[in-house]
Amino acid sequence: MWQQQGKFLHRAPGRGLELFVHPTKKFKTTTVKLYCHHALDGDAARNALLTFLLRQGTRSCPDARSIARHLESLFGATLDLDVFKIGERQIVALHLQVLNDRFARDATLLRRSVRFLGELLTSPRLESDEGFSCGFFEQEKRNLVRLLESNIEDRHAYASERLVAEMCRDEPYGIHELGTVEAVRAIERDELSEYYAKWRATVPIDAFVVGDVSPDAVDDAFEGIWPESDVRQTIDDLPDPVAWSRTDSKRVHETSDARQAILGLGYRVAPHESRASNLGFLYCDAILGGGTFSKLFRNVRESAGLAYYAGSSFERIKGLLTVQAGIADENYERTLRIVKREMRAMRHGAIDEFELESARESFLHRIRSIGDHPLALVRATLMARIAGTPISLSKALARHRAIAKDDVVEAARALVLDTTYFLGKGRASREERRRARQRRVASEAVAAEVTAPATGVASCV
């Protein structure tokens, strides 16, 4: 039986299998999204490599050319596979966007599209009993290694990853969503094939469909594509984020041969505070470094002229607020003092009406626009589901309208500085420069193959 959950109708066709449908005539296309949930752990590299392999072919479409032809037969449907993390959860996502049946004048289009997506997930191209194709396995393994090695070329992303890794050194959240180079290189083909059989039978799966569809038609389309399993987990079986035990703040200083230095500060929500439900933390992030109205933009970048860019972000599931600024190496101490001063000022109530109202209007605009973008609506529902909080856009608007300065001050006081990270200027060795050139060349061939998930409005409801 279907039950209303926010904008979606929901039912569970089996253990660990959840189906969400949002019927709407607003769009000419139908969006179908599958999310496979896994704890962020030592299997991260295996899950990432699986994602790379699943997109290479199925039993009926054994190569990229066959897949392209099949997508063309689905009236030019678009396909994307991705892997990312939310909190201490690794998500493998399959996304298909297809013309709505009524515009294609093909009543079977939705069903054929869902069947193809299900085949990608459950029936990849295998070489009889030997598992994944040896050629595809070695190719995608190399691609994943190159992609991980190329990450250092994006200094901003690298510094952000290093900050989080230092903050969460002994926690699952410190694991990269693609694993490590060493872990990927250690994967054997027969081992991964055995792992996939277990993964397919146990991984919890959420399916979202947005478009001019009937719930019963969606239910019929998905019928029979799920791999039957009595041991499948539910998302409630996955571990909660590891609780943080407060420790002394630490500083980490590393060097690179980049012209621009990068300063990062990582704050944690005090363990006794609610991470998922307190909007004060979102406003604290927005006012500190969330836009051109923020304290960091106005006081570090504009007034002091110390940063090429300065901003912050908040991971609400894990409860981490991170600050990053691109600066000249010699401006490290001065920039650090100003960032700490601005956070200290917030704790003492130095938040003016312009900052609060600018943040509020930004969030309200994002929430109002959620219904205009299928992926934003899906993402917001997924985030609420992982956070364990029901989603209601009308209630979210009311909560944002009710936020007061005291709520933001209280949140700022609950944030504790955990790590200060600085990627400064230094001289890289000749060997490091040679490897960097190799990574740069390799990354150009594979960078477009894995895309980051859209975030946007998802975290503000």
Key structural traits:
alpha+beta; 5-stranded mixed beta sheet; 43% helix; 461 residues; 7-stranded mixed beta sheet; Cytochrome Bc1 Complex, Chain A, domain 1; 17 helices
Secondary structure elements and pairings:
Layout: E1 3-5, E2 8-14, E3 17-23, E4 29-39, H1 44-54, H2 64-73, E5 78-86, E6 89-99, H3 101-104, H4 109-122, H5 134-150, H6 155-167, H7 181-185, H8 189-202, E7 205-211, H9 215-222, E8 250-256, E9 261-269, H10 279-289, H11 295-303, E10 307-315, E11 320-327, H12 332-347, H13 353-369, H14 374-387, H15 393-402, H16 405-413, E12 415-425, H17 430-446
Parallel strand pairs: 3-7, 8-12
Antiparallel strand pairs: 1-2, 2-3, 4-6, 4-7, 5-6, 9-11, 9-12, 10-11
Helix pairs in contact: 1-5, 4-9, 5-17, 10-16, 11-12, 12-16, 13-15
